[in-house]
Amino acid sequence: MGEGFIKPIIIEDISDDHGETTEDEPLSPAARLFQSPELNCSIIVVLGCNTPINVPAFVSGFMKSVAKHPRFSSLLLTDDKNGEQMSWRRTKIDVHKHVYAPDLDPNMKSADDYVEDYVSSLTNTGFDITKPLWELHFLNVKTSDANGTAIAKIHHSVGDGVSIMSLFLASSRKASDLDSLPSFPLPKTKRPTEFKNLCHGFLEVLYTMWTAILMFFNTFVDVMNFTATALFSKDTDTPLKGAPEDVRLSSKRIVHKIFSLHDIKLVKSAMNATINDVLLGITMAGISRYLYGKYDEKDYATTRKKENNLPAKIRVRSLLVHNLRPSTVVESLAEMTGKEKKLVWGNKIGYVLLPVTIALQDDPLDYVRKAKAIADRKKLSFEAILSYSIGRFVLKFLGIKQLAAVMNKVTSNTTIAFSNMVGPTEDISFYGHHLSYIAPGTCGQPQALTVHWQSYGEKMILVLTVDPDVIPDYKNIYADMEASLQLIKDAVVQRGEAVPV
After folding, report:
1. Which of 158-162, 213-217, 341-345 has the lowest mean pLDDT?
2. Domain containing 386 — which CATH number?
């Protein structure tokens, strides 16, 4: 069975480490949403280590850093006398109830399959509600990408991916300098366009007015599209789409593939695009390639285009999870856990509907061009902010059940969940453990396919969360994305458009 709704418990008052009774903290609207039966989601982060894991050292470091945050040392409560309001209450952690380290043969055969099966088993098991909602698992076996694997499972109500990853990275250090915090790409300042450089006085006013009109129009269209999706508009039934109720409760497979960040930067520079544009282009190319193969082997549609096996007017959309924080820069551990500074923690995310172009392009670079056009248009819209604000409005005036029903409809009517996250520019070490890769995924959502891109040092890691009952040949998806990147890169090189990066 799938992970059921986590029913909060009621306990006595608990004091903090200084003997002072701490006040209960109400759950945020998004945290309450992730506690609903329709969207009961968890985050699973797979960490590959270059060396076998010293479990006591890793756990000790985790307890000294990440676990000190209030969310990792709080129980979920409900107040039946006050409309079943939910809140967090601080408690003491018994680390032995959170850590799992099976005794394994480090040189076992088929270690990659074992780790994949183990992670899959975590996707449909519930949390013990008598303790904080997180677990650590350690698998000291040699896989193709690591000599040891750590797995963190955290309920999504504890925080979103950016919060959790930032807290973890703030507790890490550069592998090359254990006294320094990880470094991240600096946010680039927006350069004015050539047209805007020519605008002065009256022309500048016209340019600003035109931009405002586009923002208003695009936002209106996006909100209408979002509303239609919540009511009736849904994607085409394809081999990537399953029945939402079945998908939500089934075991998932979380698999990853490591790409070269240099190759992606090469395409980015040649196309005058962003890394996100290239990643979206690779995703569209890979999904198109995969669906072409599926429709080729089975007559899935009654009407086909003559030139290829893809059905006419196929509609596939991804629901992009958008971070609404002004910055994702990692703060020091003292700032992350101290009481002297209040941080924006928890779930602060909006949603954006991205159309995924499904077509076989003669020019591989057309996928990146199309992705860039979609991304540039979405930048001139307040869709993400308004989706968050509308969610708060629905929660306040209609209640959590109605909000959960709306978001369940939106996610169920789309095909793919999509996200990406910027990681450190250099390899990092977590209490003596040099990480070879970071692969975060989620489970509990009604989509059969989740695509996540995670940068780490000179690597770009593709993480797929899939329902194997819907997509049994799921490894073909990242193989098709790998082939698509190669075709796009080759096209750039052959045309002499590649520039040093």
Report:
1. 341-345
2. 3.30.559
- Tens-place pLDDT, residues 104-125: 998 899 999 999 999 999 998 8
**Whole-structure pTM value:** 0.88
Instruction: Give the closest residue to 471 by CA, choosing from 419, 416, 407.
Output: 416
Tokens of 362: 């003669």
List for the chain the helix, strand, coil content (%; round to 5).
40, 20, 40
Cα dihedral value 46, 50, 56, 62, nearest 10: -50
Structure tokens at 489: 């890169």
CB-CB contact of 260 with 456 (8 Å): no
Report residue 15's pLDDT band, with 50, 70 and 90 as the boundaries: very low
The rounded distance, in Å, linking the Cα atoms of 67 and 64 is 7
Residue 260 tokens, joined: 């070269």
Identify whether 156 is a catalytic site residue: yes
- What is the pLDDT, as a whole number, of residue 13? 38
Domain-embedded: residue 121: no
Residue 146 lies in a domain: no
3-state secondary structure of 408: helix
How far is residue 473 CA from its own chain's centroid? 22
- Asked if the model's pLDDT at residue 272 lies above 80, the reply is yes
Choosing from 98, 137, 155, 156, the catalytic residue is: 156
- pLDDT over threshold 90, residue 82: no
How far is residue 309's CA from residue 296's CA, in Å, rounded to a whole number? 6
CA 355, CA 233: separation in Å to the nearest integer? 13
Structurally, how many domains does the chain consist of? 1
Question: What is the enclosing helix (H) or strand (E) of 421?
Answer: strand 416-421
Report, in angstroms and rounded to the nearest whole number, the Rg of the chain calculated over CA atoms.
Answer: 23
Long-range contact set of residues 290-294: C-beta below 8 Å, sequence gap at least 24 = 290/240, 290/476, 290/477, 290/480, 291/238, 291/239, 291/240, 291/358, 292/360, 293/476, 293/480, 294/238, 294/239
Closest CA to 120 of 243, 244, 255: 255
How far is it, in rounded angstroms, from Cα 248 to Cα 245? 5
Q: Give the domain extent around 306.
A: 199-253+261-420+448-494
Question: Predicted confidence band at 205 (pLDDT cuts at 50, 70, 90)?
Answer: confident
Of the listed ranges 194-208, 225-239, 378-392, the least confidently predicted one is: 194-208
The whole-chain average pLDDT of the chain stands at 85
Domain assignment present for residue 103? The answer is no
